[in-house]
Design brief:
The structure holds two protein chains of two kinds. Chain A has one domain (2-265). Chain A has nine helices and no strands. Chain A has helices at residues 2-25, 32-52, 54-63, 65-102, 110-141, 145-171, 175-203, 226-235, 243-265. In chain A, helix 5 (110-141) packs antiparallel against helix 6. The longest helix of chain A has 38 residues, at 65-102. In chain B, 15% of the residues lie in helices and 43% in strands. Chain B has one helix and nine strands; from the N terminus they run αβββββββββ. In chain B, 35% of the residues are buried. Classes of the chains: A mainly alpha, B alpha+beta. At the A-B interface, helix 3, helix 4 and helix 5 of A face helix 1, strand 6 and strand 7 of B.
Chain lengths: 274, 113
């Protein structure tokens, strides 16, 4: 039972953190509960569909379908996160001011909520499809299924608890600073996702340039440990990054900085969507 | 403006599919079979410092995730099917791999030389 709890929790970890961060990042934007719920439900349904077609996805593109699928999902999430930060660069201050003054915020955040709902949905979909397959395997094999299944469900609950912990932990930050913190977190999240996408493209044989491993920190922190896995999601920690992965990471940081600066200086008062 | 990210994604997938045929590589004639949540063979010799692709056949009715952290492999293989697993180049050495969904029994090791 403990075994299946750990497996499911490890899978749910990444999605759990992302949902927590997104909830904190959209604090004060009306309707965010509805959008995030929609993202989670969409992600769960998507995970089931992906699990059902796992064979077909795997066989696609000469056996590289899974990797290309993951790379695309991560790529879309990176773009959505960039867009959110650009939007926040433009509207974050007014939201924070209004939150302090009247306790509610502006109502023009629907687009960025949609973008973040997509991010949440994709995170749940990517990790969730493995959980669906794992739990399906337990149920299909029948024997000793109940204890394993209980463990799996407890793992899901532990993931939800992690979401709550992330969210309330971030809420403890004074509202003056919270968007600065979440903007940084989202920036690092996006950079890490881009580096991960590069790995999938490398495995698929599509992006093999600069694939030399630059350093190896497995002696210091294993990517398989809990801390390693947390850092993998939060800042994109990888034991053995390739030059291309580091390049992608740096490129996203740079692109994010440029985009946010442009968004901040944009003269038009309309909701910005860079 | 929401169209922009989607357009980028579509463009990316098109680029990706267009690039695919040129990258075709044959499996290196190594096959690992999963049966009753165990690997056969459980010890595999592979070439170090070379891109590898091996075939993993899952003869169990339940899905399995073929995983090796040190080799950066993570591949879902549905029940009663097979998958091409690509990895490398890796340095000479011993590398463990597992079936993540059945870690108690599904264990193996690759020896890169």
């Amino acid at each position: 039972m403990l075994g299946s709890l750990v497996i499911v929790f490890r899978e749910v970890l990444e999605a759990g953190l992302i949902v927590g961060i997104v909830m904190a990042a959209t604090r004060g934007v009306p309707g965010r509960g509805r959008w995030i719920t929609l993202g989670v439900i969409g992600g769960v349904l998507g995970a089931m569909v992906v699990a059902a077609f796992a064979g077909a996805i795997s066989d696609a593109f000469e056996g590289s379908g899974q990797e290309l699928f993951n790379a695309c999902v991560l790529g879309i999430a990176v773009v959505m996160l960039m867009w959110h930060n650009a939007w926040m660069a433009r509207h974050g201050r007014e939201i924070a001011v209004q939150m302090r003054q009247i306790g509610t915020a502006i109502s023009s955040g629907q687009r960025t909520l949609a973008a973040l709902a997509v991010v949440v949905g994709l995170a749940v979909l990517r990790e969730g499809s493995e959980i669906v397959l794992f739990l399906y395997g337990i149920m299909a094999s029948g024997t000793s299924g109940t204890a394993l299944l209980t463990g799996g469900l407890l793992g899901l609950l532990a993931g939800a608890a992690l979401t709550a912990l992330t969210y309330f932990g971030l809420l403890a930050i004074p509202s003056r600073h919270i968007f600065t913190v979440t903007t940084w977190m989202i920036t690092l999240l996006a950079a890490g996702m881009a580096a991960q996408a590069v790995h999938f493209l490398d495995v698929a044989g599509l992006l093999t340039a600069l694939d030399n491993v630059v350093w190896n920190t497995s002696w210091l922190l294993s990517e398989g440990s809990l801390v390693g896995k947390l850092l993998h999601t939060l800042i994109g920690y990888t034991e053995q990054p390739t030059a291309m992965q580091l390049f992608a990471y740096a490129a996203v940081l740079l692109a994010m900085a440029v985009l946010m600066r442009l968004a901040r200086n944009e003269p038009s008062p309309h909701p910005q969507s860079a | 403006m929401r169209a922009l990210p989607f357009a980028l994604a579509v463009a990316l997938s098109l680029t990706v599919s267009a690039a695919m045929p040129g990258t075709a590589r044959a499996a290196d004639d190594i096959t690992i079979t999963i049966k009753d949540h165990k690997f056969t063979p459980a010890e595999v010799r592979i070439s170090a410092n070379k891109r590898m692709s091996i075939v993993v056949v899952n003869d169990d009715p339940t899905p399995e995730e073929f995983e090796s952290l040190p080799m950066k492999i993570e591949k879902i293989i549905p029940g009663n099917s097979k998958a091409l697993v690509r990895f490398g180049p890796i340095a000479p050495g011993r590398y463990e791999f597992i079936g993540e969904f059945n870690q108690a029994t599904a264990k193996g090791v690759m020896i890169a030389e």
